[in-house]
Amino acid sequence: MFGILASVIDGILVGAVYGLAAMGLTLIWGVMNVINLAHGAIIVIGMFLLYIIVYSLGLHPYVAIPAMIVFGFLFGIVLYWIAVHRVIGQAELMSLLSTFAVNMVLIGLGTAVWSTSPYNVPVSMPSISLHGYTFTGTHITAAIMAVVIAGLLYVLLYHTRIGKAVRAVANNREAAELTGIPTTQVLAMAFGLGVALAGVSGTLIATLFPFTVLSGDAYQLKSFVVTVLGGLGNPAGALLGGVALGLIEGLATPFMPVSWIPVVEFGLFVFCLIAFPRGIFSFTKA
Amino acid sequence: MWRRPFPWLIVVAALLFALVPYFTNDVGMRESLLLAAIYIILASNLNLMIGYAGYVNFGNIVFFGLGGYICLYLVTAWHVHVIVAALIGGVAVSAVALLFGTGILRLRGAFFALATIGVNQAVQQLVVNFEPWGGATGIYLSLDSYKPFGGPMQALWWMYLLIVLLTAASMLLSYVIKNSKFGLGLIAIGQNEDAAAVLGVPTARYKALVYSASAFLPAMAGGLYFFKSGIIEPGAAFNLEQSIEAIVMLMLGGAGTILGPALGAVLYEEMRGILLTTQYLSHFQLVIAGVLLLIIVQFVPGGLLGWLHRLWPRTRGWLQ
User: Fold this and answer.
1) DSSP secondary structure string, chain A?
2) Does the global pTM surpass 0.95?
3) Does A89 touch chain B if contact means CB atoms closer than 8 Å?
4) What is the ipTM of this complex?
5) Of A1, A62, A229, B65, which is most buried, counting CB atoms within 10 Å of its CB?
6) pLDDT by residue (tens digit) across A32-68?
7) In the CATH hierarchy, which fold is given to the domain comprising B5-318?
8) Which residues does chain A have within 8 Å of residue B114's beta carbon, measured at their own beta carbons?
Protein backbone atom coordinates (compact mmCIF):
# COMPACT_ATOMS: atom_id res chain seq x y z
CA MET A 1 0.00 0.00 0.00
CA PHE A 2 2.73 2.42 0.95
CA GLY A 3 4.43 1.53 -2.31
CA ILE A 4 1.63 3.15 -4.29
CA LEU A 5 1.62 6.18 -2.00
CA ALA A 6 5.38 6.49 -2.48
CA SER A 7 5.11 6.43 -6.26
CA VAL A 8 2.27 8.96 -6.08
CA ILE A 9 4.40 11.31 -3.94
CA ASP A 10 7.30 10.94 -6.32
CA GLY A 11 4.93 11.61 -9.22
CA ILE A 12 3.78 14.84 -7.59
CA LEU A 13 7.37 15.95 -6.97
CA VAL A 14 8.32 15.41 -10.62
CA GLY A 15 4.96 16.87 -11.68
CA ALA A 16 5.85 20.20 -10.08
CA VAL A 17 8.85 20.39 -12.42
CA TYR A 18 6.62 19.52 -15.44
CA GLY A 19 4.38 22.33 -14.30
CA LEU A 20 7.29 24.76 -14.32
CA ALA A 21 8.17 23.69 -17.86
CA ALA A 22 4.58 24.15 -19.01
CA MET A 23 4.46 27.58 -17.38
CA GLY A 24 7.04 28.83 -19.86
CA LEU A 25 4.94 27.55 -22.74
CA THR A 26 1.65 28.86 -21.44
CA LEU A 27 2.98 32.31 -20.57
CA ILE A 28 4.11 32.89 -24.16
CA TRP A 29 0.88 31.41 -25.49
CA GLY A 30 -1.28 33.54 -23.24
CA VAL A 31 0.50 36.82 -23.85
CA MET A 32 1.16 36.71 -27.60
CA ASN A 33 -0.90 33.77 -28.85
CA VAL A 34 2.22 31.99 -30.11
CA ILE A 35 2.82 28.30 -29.51
CA ASN A 36 6.54 28.06 -28.97
CA LEU A 37 7.63 24.91 -30.75
CA ALA A 38 11.24 25.63 -29.74
CA HIS A 39 10.16 24.90 -26.17
CA GLY A 40 11.71 21.42 -26.13
CA ALA A 41 15.00 22.67 -27.54
CA ILE A 42 15.14 25.35 -24.83
CA ILE A 43 14.56 22.72 -22.16
CA VAL A 44 17.55 20.88 -23.64
CA ILE A 45 19.63 24.07 -23.42
CA GLY A 46 18.83 24.14 -19.70
CA MET A 47 19.98 20.53 -19.37
CA PHE A 48 23.29 21.11 -21.10
CA LEU A 49 23.90 24.32 -19.19
CA LEU A 50 23.90 22.19 -16.04
CA TYR A 51 26.37 19.83 -17.70
CA ILE A 52 28.67 22.75 -18.65
CA ILE A 53 28.47 24.35 -15.20
CA VAL A 54 29.30 21.09 -13.43
CA TYR A 55 31.89 19.54 -15.75
CA SER A 56 33.49 22.41 -17.62
CA LEU A 57 33.43 25.06 -14.89
CA GLY A 58 33.46 22.73 -11.87
CA LEU A 59 30.82 24.71 -9.98
CA HIS A 60 28.01 23.49 -7.72
CA PRO A 61 25.05 22.12 -9.77
CA TYR A 62 22.52 24.56 -8.33
CA VAL A 63 24.59 27.51 -9.54
CA ALA A 64 23.15 26.58 -12.93
CA ILE A 65 19.69 27.72 -11.89
CA PRO A 66 20.24 31.47 -11.50
CA ALA A 67 22.66 31.29 -14.44
CA MET A 68 19.94 29.72 -16.60
CA ILE A 69 17.37 32.31 -15.57
CA VAL A 70 19.62 35.17 -16.64
CA PHE A 71 20.85 33.45 -19.80
CA GLY A 72 17.39 32.21 -20.74
CA PHE A 73 15.89 35.67 -20.36
CA LEU A 74 18.50 37.28 -22.61
CA PHE A 75 18.40 34.41 -25.11
CA GLY A 76 14.61 34.65 -25.21
CA ILE A 77 14.72 38.34 -26.03
CA VAL A 78 17.17 37.65 -28.87
CA LEU A 79 14.93 34.84 -30.15
CA TYR A 80 11.94 37.13 -30.01
CA TRP A 81 13.59 39.61 -32.35
CA ILE A 82 14.90 36.93 -34.71
CA ALA A 83 11.93 34.63 -35.02
CA VAL A 84 8.78 35.90 -33.38
CA HIS A 85 8.41 39.64 -33.83
CA ARG A 86 7.53 39.58 -37.53
CA VAL A 87 4.96 36.78 -37.23
CA ILE A 88 2.92 38.11 -34.31
CA GLY A 89 -0.65 38.72 -35.37
CA GLN A 90 -0.28 36.63 -38.55
CA ALA A 91 -1.87 33.26 -39.24
CA GLU A 92 -1.03 30.59 -36.68
CA LEU A 93 0.87 28.57 -39.26
CA MET A 94 3.51 31.30 -39.46
CA SER A 95 4.40 31.43 -35.77
CA LEU A 96 4.27 27.64 -35.49
CA LEU A 97 6.67 27.26 -38.40
CA SER A 98 8.91 30.07 -37.29
CA THR A 99 9.44 28.69 -33.79
CA PHE A 100 9.77 25.20 -35.24
CA ALA A 101 12.55 26.46 -37.48
CA VAL A 102 14.36 27.73 -34.37
CA ASN A 103 13.86 24.29 -32.86
CA MET A 104 15.48 22.64 -35.90
CA VAL A 105 18.46 24.98 -35.76
CA LEU A 106 19.02 24.49 -32.03
CA ILE A 107 18.64 20.71 -32.15
CA GLY A 108 20.87 20.55 -35.22
CA LEU A 109 23.62 22.54 -33.51
CA GLY A 110 23.23 20.51 -30.33
CA THR A 111 23.54 17.24 -32.22
CA ALA A 112 26.67 18.48 -33.99
CA VAL A 113 28.31 19.43 -30.68
CA TRP A 114 27.14 16.74 -28.23
CA SER A 115 25.86 13.97 -30.60
CA THR A 116 22.78 12.14 -29.42
CA SER A 117 24.39 9.98 -26.74
CA PRO A 118 23.01 10.16 -23.20
CA TYR A 119 24.54 12.43 -20.53
CA ASN A 120 24.12 12.24 -16.81
CA VAL A 121 24.99 14.76 -14.11
CA PRO A 122 24.97 13.09 -10.70
CA VAL A 123 23.86 15.53 -8.01
CA SER A 124 24.37 14.33 -4.44
CA MET A 125 21.73 15.39 -1.95
CA PRO A 126 20.71 13.74 1.33
CA SER A 127 17.55 11.68 0.84
CA ILE A 128 14.65 10.84 3.16
CA SER A 129 13.69 7.24 3.97
CA LEU A 130 10.21 6.20 5.10
CA HIS A 131 9.04 2.60 5.56
CA GLY A 132 11.89 1.37 3.40
CA TYR A 133 11.09 3.72 0.51
CA THR A 134 13.57 6.45 -0.31
CA PHE A 135 12.62 9.89 -1.57
CA THR A 136 15.72 11.28 -3.20
CA GLY A 137 16.86 14.73 -2.13
CA THR A 138 17.16 15.91 -5.72
CA HIS A 139 13.47 15.24 -6.37
CA ILE A 140 12.44 17.13 -3.25
CA THR A 141 14.77 20.06 -3.99
CA ALA A 142 13.61 20.24 -7.60
CA ALA A 143 9.95 20.32 -6.56
CA ILE A 144 10.59 23.02 -3.93
CA MET A 145 12.53 25.14 -6.43
CA ALA A 146 9.79 24.72 -9.02
CA VAL A 147 7.17 25.92 -6.56
CA VAL A 148 9.34 28.85 -5.43
CA ILE A 149 10.00 29.97 -9.01
CA ALA A 150 6.29 29.63 -9.80
CA GLY A 151 5.54 31.79 -6.74
CA LEU A 152 8.02 34.43 -7.87
CA LEU A 153 6.39 34.46 -11.30
CA TYR A 154 3.01 34.95 -9.64
CA VAL A 155 4.32 37.90 -7.64
CA LEU A 156 5.90 39.38 -10.75
CA LEU A 157 2.71 39.05 -12.80
CA TYR A 158 0.18 40.16 -10.19
CA HIS A 159 2.02 42.52 -7.83
CA THR A 160 4.36 44.60 -9.95
CA ARG A 161 3.88 47.29 -12.58
CA ILE A 162 5.73 45.18 -15.15
CA GLY A 163 3.37 42.29 -14.48
CA LYS A 164 0.41 44.60 -14.87
CA ALA A 165 1.77 45.70 -18.25
CA VAL A 166 2.21 42.05 -19.33
CA ARG A 167 -1.35 41.24 -18.34
CA ALA A 168 -2.64 44.33 -20.10
CA VAL A 169 -0.88 43.37 -23.33
CA ALA A 170 -2.22 39.84 -23.06
CA ASN A 171 -5.72 41.19 -22.67
CA ASN A 172 -5.79 43.71 -25.48
CA ARG A 173 -2.67 44.84 -27.22
CA GLU A 174 -4.10 47.89 -28.98
CA ALA A 175 -5.70 49.23 -25.82
CA ALA A 176 -2.45 48.67 -23.92
CA GLU A 177 -0.52 50.56 -26.59
CA LEU A 178 -2.99 53.45 -26.34
CA THR A 179 -2.43 53.78 -22.62
CA GLY A 180 1.28 54.22 -23.26
CA ILE A 181 2.59 50.74 -22.57
CA PRO A 182 5.56 49.94 -24.87
CA THR A 183 3.90 46.72 -26.04
CA THR A 184 6.75 45.48 -28.22
CA GLN A 185 9.19 45.61 -25.33
CA VAL A 186 6.64 43.93 -23.08
CA LEU A 187 6.17 41.12 -25.60
CA ALA A 188 9.93 40.64 -25.92
CA MET A 189 10.23 40.53 -22.15
CA ALA A 190 7.38 38.04 -21.79
CA PHE A 191 9.02 35.82 -24.39
CA GLY A 192 12.30 36.08 -22.48
CA LEU A 193 10.51 35.09 -19.27
CA GLY A 194 8.88 32.11 -20.95
CA VAL A 195 12.22 30.92 -22.32
CA ALA A 196 13.89 31.38 -18.94
CA LEU A 197 11.19 29.26 -17.27
CA ALA A 198 11.55 26.50 -19.86
CA GLY A 199 15.33 26.55 -19.49
CA VAL A 200 15.23 26.39 -15.69
CA SER A 201 12.83 23.47 -15.80
CA GLY A 202 15.30 21.74 -18.12
CA THR A 203 18.10 22.33 -15.62
CA LEU A 204 15.96 20.88 -12.83
CA ILE A 205 14.99 17.86 -14.92
CA ALA A 206 18.66 17.24 -15.69
CA THR A 207 19.36 16.96 -11.94
CA LEU A 208 16.81 14.10 -11.81
CA PHE A 209 17.19 12.04 -14.97
CA PRO A 210 19.80 11.33 -17.65
CA PHE A 211 19.26 13.30 -20.87
CA THR A 212 20.20 13.54 -24.55
CA VAL A 213 20.03 16.33 -27.11
CA LEU A 214 16.71 14.84 -28.24
CA SER A 215 15.08 14.61 -24.78
CA GLY A 216 13.38 17.95 -25.37
CA ASP A 217 10.66 16.46 -27.58
CA ALA A 218 9.27 14.27 -24.81
CA TYR A 219 9.17 17.13 -22.32
CA GLN A 220 7.70 19.47 -24.89
CA LEU A 221 4.86 17.03 -25.44
CA LYS A 222 4.44 16.68 -21.68
CA SER A 223 4.25 20.47 -21.48
CA PHE A 224 1.49 20.45 -24.05
CA VAL A 225 -0.42 17.85 -22.07
CA VAL A 226 0.02 19.92 -18.91
CA THR A 227 -1.01 23.12 -20.66
CA VAL A 228 -4.13 21.49 -21.99
CA LEU A 229 -4.93 20.07 -18.55
CA GLY A 230 -4.31 23.38 -16.85
CA GLY A 231 -5.86 25.71 -19.40
CA LEU A 232 -4.03 27.76 -21.99
CA GLY A 233 -2.34 30.93 -20.88
CA ASN A 234 -2.95 30.20 -17.23
CA PRO A 235 0.33 29.94 -15.21
CA ALA A 236 -1.38 28.86 -11.97
CA GLY A 237 -3.29 26.18 -13.87
CA ALA A 238 -0.01 24.99 -15.35
CA LEU A 239 1.39 24.06 -11.95
CA LEU A 240 -1.83 22.20 -11.11
CA GLY A 241 -1.78 20.51 -14.51
CA GLY A 242 1.83 19.48 -13.96
CA VAL A 243 1.04 17.94 -10.61
CA ALA A 244 -1.95 16.18 -12.18
CA LEU A 245 0.24 14.71 -14.92
CA GLY A 246 2.84 13.62 -12.37
CA LEU A 247 0.07 12.05 -10.33
CA ILE A 248 -1.25 10.14 -13.35
CA GLU A 249 2.26 8.89 -14.17
CA GLY A 250 2.85 7.93 -10.55
CA LEU A 251 -0.47 6.14 -10.24
CA ALA A 252 -0.14 4.34 -13.55
CA THR A 253 3.42 3.07 -12.97
CA PRO A 254 2.60 0.20 -10.57
CA PHE A 255 -0.34 -1.02 -12.66
CA MET A 256 0.86 -1.15 -16.25
CA PRO A 257 4.01 -1.80 -18.26
CA VAL A 258 6.13 1.36 -18.63
CA SER A 259 5.74 1.35 -22.42
CA TRP A 260 1.97 1.90 -22.07
CA ILE A 261 2.31 5.16 -20.11
CA PRO A 262 2.91 7.35 -23.20
CA VAL A 263 -0.21 5.83 -24.80
CA VAL A 264 -2.24 6.90 -21.76
CA GLU A 265 -0.64 10.35 -21.75
CA PHE A 266 -1.22 11.13 -25.41
CA GLY A 267 -4.66 9.58 -25.40
CA LEU A 268 -5.53 11.79 -22.44
CA PHE A 269 -4.03 14.76 -24.25
CA VAL A 270 -6.18 14.36 -27.35
CA PHE A 271 -9.23 13.58 -25.24
CA CYS A 272 -8.78 16.68 -23.06
CA LEU A 273 -8.21 18.88 -26.10
CA ILE A 274 -11.49 17.78 -27.63
CA ALA A 275 -13.52 17.64 -24.43
CA PHE A 276 -12.11 20.65 -22.57
CA PRO A 277 -10.45 22.98 -25.08
CA ARG A 278 -10.12 25.62 -22.37
CA GLY A 279 -8.51 23.33 -19.83
CA ILE A 280 -9.90 21.41 -16.89
CA PHE A 281 -8.58 23.83 -14.30
CA SER A 282 -9.51 26.89 -16.29
CA PHE A 283 -12.06 29.07 -14.53
CA THR A 284 -12.52 31.61 -17.29
CA LYS A 285 -15.67 31.49 -19.35
CA ALA A 286 -15.59 31.22 -23.12
CA MET B 1 -10.91 18.82 -67.18
CA TRP B 2 -8.78 17.38 -70.00
CA ARG B 3 -9.41 20.44 -72.17
CA ARG B 4 -7.04 22.51 -70.06
CA PRO B 5 -3.26 22.20 -70.54
CA PHE B 6 -2.52 21.76 -66.83
CA PRO B 7 -3.55 18.08 -66.35
CA TRP B 8 -1.59 17.12 -69.48
CA LEU B 9 1.45 18.84 -68.04
CA ILE B 10 1.17 16.59 -64.99
CA VAL B 11 0.80 13.47 -67.12
CA VAL B 12 3.87 14.34 -69.19
CA ALA B 13 5.91 15.11 -66.09
CA ALA B 14 4.87 11.80 -64.52
CA LEU B 15 5.78 9.89 -67.69
CA LEU B 16 9.23 11.50 -67.71
CA PHE B 17 9.60 10.68 -64.02
CA ALA B 18 8.72 7.05 -64.67
CA LEU B 19 10.42 6.38 -67.99
CA VAL B 20 13.75 8.20 -67.81
CA PRO B 21 15.27 6.05 -65.02
CA TYR B 22 13.61 2.93 -66.50
CA PHE B 23 15.14 3.24 -69.95
CA THR B 24 18.52 4.45 -68.74
CA ASN B 25 18.34 1.65 -66.12
CA ASP B 26 19.85 4.05 -63.58
CA VAL B 27 19.12 2.65 -60.10
CA GLY B 28 20.73 5.61 -58.31
CA MET B 29 18.53 8.05 -60.18
CA ARG B 30 15.50 5.87 -59.45
CA GLU B 31 16.15 5.91 -55.72
CA SER B 32 16.56 9.67 -55.56
CA LEU B 33 13.46 10.22 -57.72
CA LEU B 34 11.53 7.77 -55.57
CA LEU B 35 12.29 9.84 -52.50
CA ALA B 36 11.26 12.98 -54.37
CA ALA B 37 8.02 11.26 -55.45
CA ILE B 38 7.21 10.28 -51.85
CA TYR B 39 7.90 13.85 -50.73
CA ILE B 40 5.63 15.21 -53.45
CA ILE B 41 2.83 12.88 -52.34
CA LEU B 42 3.21 13.91 -48.69
CA ALA B 43 3.55 17.64 -49.39
CA SER B 44 0.81 17.96 -51.96
CA ASN B 45 -1.75 16.03 -49.90
CA LEU B 46 -0.81 18.03 -46.83
CA ASN B 47 -1.38 21.11 -48.96
CA LEU B 48 -5.08 20.19 -49.17
CA MET B 49 -5.28 20.75 -45.41
CA ILE B 50 -2.81 23.58 -44.90
CA GLY B 51 -2.89 25.44 -48.18
CA TYR B 52 -6.59 25.13 -48.97
CA ALA B 53 -8.48 24.74 -45.70
CA GLY B 54 -5.92 26.60 -43.56
CA TYR B 55 -5.71 23.88 -40.93
CA VAL B 56 -2.17 23.01 -39.78
CA ASN B 57 -1.77 19.25 -39.60
CA PHE B 58 1.52 18.42 -37.90
CA GLY B 59 0.79 14.71 -37.73
CA ASN B 60 0.16 14.09 -41.41
CA ILE B 61 2.77 11.30 -41.37
CA VAL B 62 0.43 9.15 -39.28
CA PHE B 63 -1.48 8.32 -42.49
CA PHE B 64 1.70 7.22 -44.25
CA GLY B 65 2.77 5.04 -41.34
CA LEU B 66 -0.63 3.47 -40.70
CA GLY B 67 -1.08 2.72 -44.40
CA GLY B 68 2.33 1.05 -44.40
CA TYR B 69 1.50 -1.05 -41.35
CA ILE B 70 -1.87 -2.21 -42.67
CA CYS B 71 -0.38 -3.11 -46.03
CA LEU B 72 2.60 -5.04 -44.64
CA TYR B 73 0.43 -6.82 -42.12
CA LEU B 74 -1.96 -7.98 -44.85
CA VAL B 75 0.95 -9.07 -47.04
CA THR B 76 2.74 -11.08 -44.33
CA ALA B 77 -0.17 -12.48 -42.30
CA TRP B 78 -2.86 -12.95 -44.97
CA HIS B 79 -0.73 -13.20 -48.14
CA VAL B 80 -2.75 -10.53 -49.88
CA HIS B 81 -1.24 -9.09 -53.08
CA VAL B 82 0.60 -5.88 -52.26
CA ILE B 83 -1.41 -3.67 -54.63
CA VAL B 84 -4.68 -4.89 -53.13
CA ALA B 85 -3.22 -4.54 -49.64
CA ALA B 86 -2.11 -0.95 -50.29
CA LEU B 87 -5.56 -0.14 -51.62
CA ILE B 88 -7.21 -1.64 -48.54
CA GLY B 89 -4.77 0.34 -46.40
CA GLY B 90 -5.69 3.56 -48.20
CA VAL B 91 -9.42 3.00 -47.83
CA ALA B 92 -9.13 1.94 -44.18
CA VAL B 93 -6.96 4.92 -43.20
CA SER B 94 -9.27 7.30 -45.04
CA ALA B 95 -12.26 5.86 -43.20
CA VAL B 96 -10.51 6.21 -39.83
CA ALA B 97 -9.53 9.77 -40.74
CA LEU B 98 -13.12 10.60 -41.60
CA LEU B 99 -14.33 9.28 -38.25
CA PHE B 100 -11.55 10.93 -36.34
CA GLY B 101 -11.71 14.13 -38.33
CA THR B 102 -15.28 14.82 -37.24
CA GLY B 103 -13.96 14.80 -33.66
CA ILE B 104 -10.72 16.74 -33.75
CA LEU B 105 -11.79 19.17 -36.47
CA ARG B 106 -14.09 20.80 -33.93
CA LEU B 107 -10.86 22.34 -32.71
CA ARG B 108 -9.62 25.46 -34.40
CA GLY B 109 -6.22 26.85 -35.25
CA ALA B 110 -3.47 26.05 -32.81
CA PHE B 111 -5.59 23.60 -30.82
CA PHE B 112 -6.08 21.47 -33.90
CA ALA B 113 -2.36 21.64 -34.71
CA LEU B 114 -1.51 20.37 -31.22
CA ALA B 115 -4.11 17.62 -31.38
CA THR B 116 -2.57 16.29 -34.60
CA ILE B 117 0.81 15.97 -32.87
CA GLY B 118 -0.94 14.11 -30.06
CA VAL B 119 -2.69 11.76 -32.49
CA ASN B 120 0.59 10.86 -34.21
CA GLN B 121 2.40 10.21 -30.93
CA ALA B 122 -0.52 8.25 -29.47
CA VAL B 123 -0.73 6.02 -32.54
CA GLN B 124 3.04 5.50 -32.54
CA GLN B 125 3.07 4.47 -28.89
CA LEU B 126 0.05 2.24 -29.44
CA VAL B 127 1.81 0.45 -32.30
CA VAL B 128 4.94 0.02 -30.15
CA ASN B 129 2.75 -1.95 -27.76
CA PHE B 130 0.74 -3.79 -30.41
CA GLU B 131 2.12 -7.33 -30.63
CA PRO B 132 0.39 -8.53 -33.85
CA TRP B 133 2.27 -5.74 -35.64
CA GLY B 134 5.58 -6.75 -34.13
CA GLY B 135 5.66 -4.17 -31.32
CA ALA B 136 8.80 -2.05 -31.21
CA THR B 137 10.71 -4.24 -33.70
CA GLY B 138 8.09 -3.97 -36.43
CA ILE B 139 7.29 -6.22 -39.39
CA TYR B 140 9.89 -7.79 -41.70
CA LEU B 141 9.08 -9.10 -45.14
CA SER B 142 10.59 -12.36 -46.36
CA LEU B 143 11.99 -12.54 -49.88
CA ASP B 144 9.02 -14.73 -50.86
CA SER B 145 6.78 -11.67 -50.70
CA TYR B 146 8.45 -10.36 -53.87
CA LYS B 147 7.72 -13.57 -55.86
CA PRO B 148 4.52 -12.27 -57.58
CA PHE B 149 6.71 -9.71 -59.33
CA GLY B 150 9.37 -12.23 -60.38
CA GLY B 151 11.98 -11.35 -57.77
CA PRO B 152 13.07 -8.35 -55.66
CA MET B 153 14.78 -6.52 -58.53
CA GLN B 154 11.62 -6.37 -60.63
CA ALA B 155 9.50 -5.64 -57.56
CA LEU B 156 11.54 -2.50 -56.86
CA TRP B 157 10.86 -1.20 -60.36
CA TRP B 158 7.17 -2.00 -60.00
CA MET B 159 6.97 -0.17 -56.71
CA TYR B 160 8.72 2.82 -58.24
CA LEU B 161 6.29 2.99 -61.15
CA LEU B 162 3.28 2.63 -58.85
CA ILE B 163 4.54 5.38 -56.55
CA VAL B 164 5.02 7.69 -59.55
CA LEU B 165 1.43 6.88 -60.48
CA LEU B 166 0.33 7.94 -56.99
CA THR B 167 2.36 11.13 -57.35
CA ALA B 168 0.51 12.00 -60.54
CA ALA B 169 -2.77 11.12 -58.81
CA SER B 170 -1.88 13.48 -55.94
CA MET B 171 -1.27 16.36 -58.30
CA LEU B 172 -4.48 15.67 -60.22
CA LEU B 173 -6.41 15.45 -56.95
CA SER B 174 -5.06 18.87 -55.94
CA TYR B 175 -6.08 20.21 -59.34
CA VAL B 176 -9.56 18.71 -59.35
CA ILE B 177 -10.29 19.84 -55.80
CA LYS B 178 -9.02 23.35 -56.40
CA ASN B 179 -11.27 23.76 -59.43
CA SER B 180 -14.41 22.40 -57.78
CA LYS B 181 -17.12 23.79 -55.56
CA PHE B 182 -15.66 21.71 -52.74
CA GLY B 183 -12.25 23.39 -53.22
CA LEU B 184 -13.82 26.83 -53.29
CA GLY B 185 -15.56 26.03 -50.02
CA LEU B 186 -12.27 24.89 -48.50
CA ILE B 187 -10.47 28.07 -49.56
CA ALA B 188 -13.34 30.08 -48.06
CA ILE B 189 -12.89 28.13 -44.80
CA GLY B 190 -9.17 28.90 -44.92
CA GLN B 191 -9.82 32.62 -45.24
CA ASN B 192 -12.60 33.04 -42.73
CA GLU B 193 -14.41 30.03 -41.37
CA ASP B 194 -17.24 31.90 -39.69
CA ALA B 195 -17.99 33.92 -42.79
CA ALA B 196 -17.91 30.73 -44.88
CA ALA B 197 -20.37 29.04 -42.55
CA VAL B 198 -22.71 32.02 -42.66
CA LEU B 199 -22.63 31.95 -46.47
CA GLY B 200 -23.74 28.33 -46.50
CA VAL B 201 -20.52 26.32 -46.75
CA PRO B 202 -21.07 23.08 -44.79
CA THR B 203 -17.82 23.64 -42.91
CA ALA B 204 -17.88 20.60 -40.61
CA ARG B 205 -18.55 18.16 -43.46
CA TYR B 206 -16.02 19.79 -45.80
CA LYS B 207 -13.29 19.76 -43.17
CA ALA B 208 -13.82 16.09 -42.31
CA LEU B 209 -13.92 15.22 -46.02
CA VAL B 210 -10.67 17.02 -46.84
CA TYR B 211 -8.97 15.46 -43.81
CA SER B 212 -10.03 12.06 -45.09
CA ALA B 213 -9.09 12.85 -48.69
CA SER B 214 -5.63 14.01 -47.64
CA ALA B 215 -5.13 10.61 -45.95
CA PHE B 216 -5.88 8.31 -48.89
CA LEU B 217 -2.90 8.68 -51.22
CA PRO B 218 -0.24 9.03 -48.48
CA ALA B 219 -1.58 5.83 -46.88
CA MET B 220 -1.30 3.94 -50.17
CA ALA B 221 2.16 5.39 -50.78
CA GLY B 222 3.14 4.24 -47.28
CA GLY B 223 2.08 0.70 -48.13
CA LEU B 224 4.11 0.61 -51.34
CA TYR B 225 7.11 2.38 -49.83
CA PHE B 226 7.45 0.09 -46.82
CA PHE B 227 6.83 -2.96 -49.03
CA LYS B 228 9.76 -1.78 -51.10
CA SER B 229 11.92 -1.29 -48.00
CA GLY B 230 10.94 -4.75 -46.74
CA ILE B 231 10.68 -3.55 -43.13
CA ILE B 232 8.50 -1.23 -41.10
CA GLU B 233 9.01 -0.14 -37.50
CA PRO B 234 7.25 2.51 -35.38
CA GLY B 235 10.14 5.00 -35.31
CA ALA B 236 10.43 5.18 -39.10
CA ALA B 237 6.72 4.92 -39.79
CA PHE B 238 5.53 7.74 -37.51
CA ASN B 239 8.50 10.08 -37.75
CA LEU B 240 7.18 13.49 -36.71
CA GLU B 241 10.23 15.14 -38.27
CA GLN B 242 9.24 13.89 -41.72
CA SER B 243 5.80 15.32 -41.21
CA ILE B 244 7.30 18.70 -40.55
CA GLU B 245 9.74 18.42 -43.44
CA ALA B 246 6.65 18.07 -45.64
CA ILE B 247 5.42 21.41 -44.25
CA VAL B 248 8.81 22.98 -45.07
CA MET B 249 8.51 21.70 -48.64
CA LEU B 250 5.07 23.07 -49.24
CA MET B 251 6.00 26.42 -47.71
CA LEU B 252 9.11 26.51 -49.89
CA GLY B 253 7.07 25.97 -53.05
CA GLY B 254 4.04 27.98 -52.03
CA ALA B 255 1.11 26.89 -49.88
CA GLY B 256 -2.27 26.78 -51.58
CA THR B 257 -0.89 26.33 -55.10
CA ILE B 258 -0.91 23.05 -57.02
CA LEU B 259 2.62 22.99 -58.43
CA GLY B 260 4.20 24.69 -55.41
CA PRO B 261 4.34 21.70 -53.04
CA ALA B 262 5.77 19.48 -55.80
CA LEU B 263 8.38 22.07 -56.68
CA GLY B 264 9.26 22.52 -53.02
CA ALA B 265 9.51 18.76 -52.51
CA VAL B 266 11.94 18.29 -55.40
CA LEU B 267 14.04 21.29 -54.35
CA TYR B 268 14.13 20.12 -50.74
CA GLU B 269 15.11 16.60 -51.76
CA GLU B 270 17.94 17.95 -53.93
CA MET B 271 19.14 20.23 -51.14
CA ARG B 272 19.05 17.39 -48.63
CA GLY B 273 21.05 15.20 -50.97
CA ILE B 274 23.71 17.85 -51.42
CA LEU B 275 23.91 18.58 -47.70
CA LEU B 276 24.13 14.92 -46.73
CA THR B 277 26.95 14.18 -49.16
CA THR B 278 29.02 17.30 -48.48
CA GLN B 279 31.59 16.51 -45.85
CA TYR B 280 31.39 19.51 -43.57
CA LEU B 281 27.69 20.12 -44.01
CA SER B 282 26.28 16.67 -43.30
CA HIS B 283 25.96 17.44 -39.58
CA PHE B 284 24.26 20.70 -40.30
CA GLN B 285 21.45 19.49 -42.56
CA LEU B 286 18.86 20.25 -39.90
CA VAL B 287 20.38 23.65 -39.12
CA ILE B 288 20.37 24.74 -42.74
CA ALA B 289 16.82 23.47 -43.29
CA GLY B 290 15.79 25.42 -40.17
CA VAL B 291 17.42 28.64 -41.30
CA LEU B 292 15.81 28.22 -44.72
CA LEU B 293 12.39 27.76 -43.15
CA LEU B 294 12.90 30.77 -40.91
CA ILE B 295 13.80 32.96 -43.87
CA ILE B 296 10.80 31.76 -45.91
CA VAL B 297 8.38 32.34 -43.04
CA GLN B 298 9.70 35.78 -42.17
CA PHE B 299 10.30 37.21 -45.62
CA VAL B 300 8.59 35.18 -48.39
CA PRO B 301 5.50 33.64 -46.76
CA GLY B 302 4.02 32.95 -50.21
CA GLY B 303 6.85 30.58 -51.13
CA LEU B 304 8.47 30.32 -54.53
CA LEU B 305 5.25 30.50 -56.54
CA GLY B 306 3.82 33.28 -54.39
CA TRP B 307 6.98 35.24 -55.04
CA LEU B 308 6.79 34.60 -58.79
CA HIS B 309 3.14 35.64 -58.82
CA ARG B 310 4.02 38.89 -57.15
CA LEU B 311 6.95 39.51 -59.45
CA TRP B 312 5.04 38.73 -62.65
CA PRO B 313 1.29 38.91 -62.00
CA ARG B 314 0.66 37.33 -65.42
CA THR B 315 1.99 33.97 -64.23
CA ARG B 316 -0.98 33.70 -61.86
CA GLY B 317 -3.19 32.46 -64.71
CA TRP B 318 -1.27 29.45 -65.96
CA LEU B 319 1.19 28.66 -63.17
CA GLN B 320 -1.21 27.44 -60.51
Assistant:
1) -HHHHHHHHHHHHHHHHHHHHHHHHHHHHHHH----TTHHHHHHHHHHHHHIIIIIS---GGGHHHHHHHHHHHHHHHHIIIIIGGGTTS-HHHHHHHHHHHHHHHHHHHHHHHTT--B--------EEETTEEE-HHHHHHHHHHHHHHHHHHHHHHHSHHHHHHHHHHH-HHHHHHTT--HHHHHHHHHHHHHHHHHHHHHHHHHHS-B-GGGHHHHHHHHHHHHHHH-TT-HHHHHHHHHHHHHHHHHHTTTS-GGGHHHHHHHHHHHHHHH-TT-TT-----
2) no
3) no
4) 0.81
5) B65
6) 888 888 999 999 999 999 999 888 888 888 888 899 9
7) ABC transporter involved in vitamin B12 uptake, BtuC (1.10.3470)
8) 35, 224, 228, 273
